[in-house]
Design a protein that fits this description.
Helices cover 29% and strands 32% of the residues. It contains 4 helices and 7 strands; from the N terminus they run βααβββαβαββ. It is an alpha+beta fold and 144 residues long. The strands form 2 sheets. It has a 4-stranded antiparallel beta sheet, with helices on both faces. Strands 5-7-6 form a 3-stranded antiparallel beta sheet. The chain has a single domain, classed as Gcn5-related N-acetyltransferase (GNAT) (Aminopeptidase), CATH 3.40.630.30. The chain starts with 5 loop residues before the first strand and ends with a strand. 30% of the residues are buried.
Length: 144
Amino acid sequence: MKGATAFRQAEHRDIPAMSRIRLSVAENVLSDPSRVTLQMYEDFLDKSGRGWVAEDDGEVVAFCYADKDNGSIWALFVRPGHEGRGIAKALLGLAVDWLFSLGNARICLSTGANTRADRFYAAQGWRRDPVGATEIAYSLTKPA
């Protein structure tokens, strides 16, 4: 029987697991995986933002990164087989709360059109603005 999912701030030791998760997804697949570098993961931990991970039985199964420099969600990915359990919603909540606590009045992100992620952000109440045929911009305004 699986234990409860645990959420915590990401650490450098989590980067290999986060990279494996990012490369394992069936949607929003990177056309060029070399575009997301180890340095990018490190920068979001140390300089540009903050990351969080979800663990099941001590294994990282999902992660989220928030970019403090532009008030955005840089990444939110759940390892296949762990979707539909509220993990992404919980991670997104941690990132959103942190970005709002820094004084951001609005948070943004982009994702592929007509994907699970597209439907997920819409279901969370984010404002959906098509950018083109294949990309959607989302924004969330801090509640009054």
